[in-house]
Specification:
The protein is built from nine helices and eleven strands. The chain has helices spanning 3-6, 9-19, 33-39, 47-64, 72-91, 118-131, 140-179, 242-251, 313-324; strands at 185-190, 197-203, 207-214, 225-229, 255-260, 263-277, 283-295, 303-305, 334-337, 346-347, 349-351.
């Protein structure tokens, strides 16, 4: 947008305004856990703030870039486009973003891209680094072609992910229909760094079913569902705490609970599990990516986020690849829920 006028300075300004909505992260260390959940991807990611920022920053940027003949409309459009692309990408993930703040507390999430997807990010990143070394006016046509390729590949991948989600969704729906399963709601999202293996979560009255399917599988191919009991009665002693209301909002009720000595453990099933093999033969341990401990005991912060460390990333990606191409044994085994505070791994039922 500004490369002709600012040269490579446009890359730096683009980087600045591209990450500006995430500066809310600097506030997080000073907030309690519940407030961290509300503020991260909160007001700074709303359409209202984006529009206001575009109008407020445009005069200052136009003044700063006066020698480069950049007027307020172009400066405002620059901020709007960068800020807006950030929000759009965030809304594509399961975490979602508060696009409608302050008019609606609900976050918008389309669930068709993984939070960090190598194949989506790399075309833009490689293009950005390459452009930084093309500085002369004679290289302007090459810069335009590179920019088009980088954005084109990333955008095509994002659009393809929507199509792949539709394919996977129809497969999950067909499987549930064959089983005559009644359920309240269902969601699908991609597994780490790909759009070929999808994970579905189905809410039933007292449990969640979690299953996987590849886009290469036929619609008649059965899904192997892992059953997670909700066990929400565990929250009876802490249900009055405001932190529980925050978790209810953040997880959108895609949550399960388990008791422990000081309160309760709560896990969010929207996000993928960290799987580990080898603890016991024929068994896979599932640790939820987002989980918390909550305690009634008065203390500085009653809600504690449990540290999430993704181990054996190379093994996980290798098993995902094998599962995409039909090797079910590489990914699926007898499942256990692990990582629950104060509890041994819990064997989970399976619906074949």
């Amino acid at each position: 947008m500004l490369g002709k006028r600012l040269g490579n300075r446009a890359l730096a300004w683009g980087a600045l305004f591209g990450i500006l909505p995430d500066l809310d992260a600097f506030l997080l260390p000073f907030l309690h856990t519940a407030n961290q959940l509300r503020w991260h991807r909160g007001p700074s990611h709303s359409l209202l703030v984006m529009i206001a920022a575009s109008f407020l920053l445009a005069p200052q940027l136009a003044k700063l870039w006066k020698r480069d003949k950049i007027r307020k409309p172009l400066a405002g459009a620059f901020v709007f486009t960068l800020w807006g692309s950030h929000l759009l990408i965030d809304a594509a993930t399961v975490y979602g973003t508060s696009l409608l703040w302050p008019f609606s507390p609900n976050r918008v999430s389309f669930n068709h891209l993984f939070i960090v997807d190598f194949f989506f990010t790399m075309p833009m990143l490689v293009t950005l680094v390459w452009l930084a070394f093309l500085r002369t006016k004679k290289q302007a046509p090459k810069r335009r072609r590179l920019n088009a390729w980088g954005l084109g590949l990333a955008t095509s991948y994002a659009l393809l992910s929507i199509a792949m989600k539709c394919v996977a969704s129809r497969g999950f729906e067909a499987d549930l229909a064959r089983r005559a399963v009644t359920y309240q709601r269902r969601m699908e999202a991609p597994t780490p760094s790909n759009i070929l293996l999808w994970r579905a979560v189905v809410e039933r009255s007292d449990s969640f079913w979690v299953g996987y399917r590849s886009v290469f599988e036929s619609r008649t191919s059965p899904v192997r569902w892992t059953v997670y009991p909700k066990d929400l009665q565990t929250l009876a002693s802490v249900i009055h705490l405001p932190e529980i209301q925050t978790l209810q909002w953040f997880t959108n009720r895609w949550w399960i609970a388990r008791p422990h000595a000081k309160g309760a453990w709560i896990g969010d099933l929207r996000f993928d599990e960290t799987k580990s093999w080898g603890e016991k033969k024929g068994v896979v341990d599932n640790r939820l990516a987002f989980s918390w401990n909550i305690s009634e005991t008065p203390q500085h912060d009653r809600l504690q986020t449990l540290a999430h460390v993704r181990k054996n990333t190379a093994e996980t990606l290798g098993r995902i690849t094998a599962r995409i191409f039909g090797n079910h044994e590489a990914w699926e085994a007898n499942p256990r829920l692990a990582g629950v505070t104060g509890s041994l791994p819990e064997f989970l039922a399976v619906e074949e």
